[in-house]
Amino acid sequence: MLIPQPYLLFLGDVTDPLAAKTARGIHVWRPEQCVGEIKLPGCTVSLGLEEIDIATAKARGAKTLVLGTANAGGYLPQHWLDTVRNAIKAGMNVASGLHHRLVDEPELVALAQEFGVELFDIRHMRPKLDVGSGKKRTGKRVLTVGTDCSVGKMYTSLALEAAMRDIGLKADFRATGQTGILVAGAGIAIDAVIADFIAGAVEALSPANEADHWDIVEGQGSLFHPSYAGVSMGLIHGAQPQWLVMCHEMGRPHMRHLPHQPMVSLKDCVEANLRAATVTSDSVQLAGFAINTSSYSEEEARAYCAEVSAEFGVPATDPVRFGISDIAALLKERG
């Protein structure tokens, strides 16, 4: 999947800032690919971009209208369709991460064909894939893994890409979720891949490369989350990583949405992920920890990171608060 950039970010009529997390993620990580935002009456959320109409966005080079918000149920509100139609008629592609598919709207499909543009349903794109082979391939790969889902694997991956580039390394973020795909402009939505093909999808996403090139593969789920362990294992085997970065939320008491499932210890999680990775990677190592400390004071956060770092002998940091340069430096030194 390759989505033409730059983007016009559509915020609909949302009033909850969290509902615009996809658009916000794109703006944070790829501001140069955002020509502006477009909203409907009643919208109270803004990314701080200039609010422009479709004609102005097209004149400024926008190639794709991104539906950058989510709602309960992931449906496509009928009153958003006028904006989508107008974008198509202006010659813009449309990308959506909603469960409701753009291609299930016959009028939009017909308009897209008439005006020579594409509809990208990020959650539903299923490229032709092979099963994983485990065959050794050149290049270097880092995979973000986690003690749980929703602990910052995408943010960590993007932050690591930026930090590695800052110190002169050739590094590329490889997206496996819908927001990451829109940030990168390319990728494979792993939750839309049939289980047998997950490892093969990740092999295709991070193919053989130059010996000094790094792929940072965005992780999903956790080996210890009963709902998502399968996708996590497929990612680990397909990525064939030389390095893992463990993501964790400080103080999280149980697995997300599963109060009956206690949080795994860092030690057990690290050991399990490293062991699983040895199926396709002979010398996989732990590069460090990326820890969400947002519920704690800076003093508590620094003390916890220092404690984790001392226990495991690798950097531990909150990428949002403290950056991730220590992990990037370790990879440059030992990679």
UniProtKB/TrEMBL annotation:
Gene3D superfamilies: NAD(P)-binding Rossmann-like Domain, P-loop containing nucleotide triphosphate hydrolases
Organism expressing this protein natively: Pantoea phytobeneficialis
InterPro entries: DgcN-like, DgcN-like_C, DgcN-like_N, P-loop_NTPase
Record domain D-glutamate N-acetyltransferase-like C-terminal: where: 131-327
Pfam families linked: DUF1611 (PF07755), DUF1611_N (PF17396)
Identification of the protein by name: EBNA-1 nuclear protein
Domain D-glutamate N-acetyltransferase-like N-terminal: start-end pairs: 48-124
Encoding gene, per UniProt annotation: dgcN
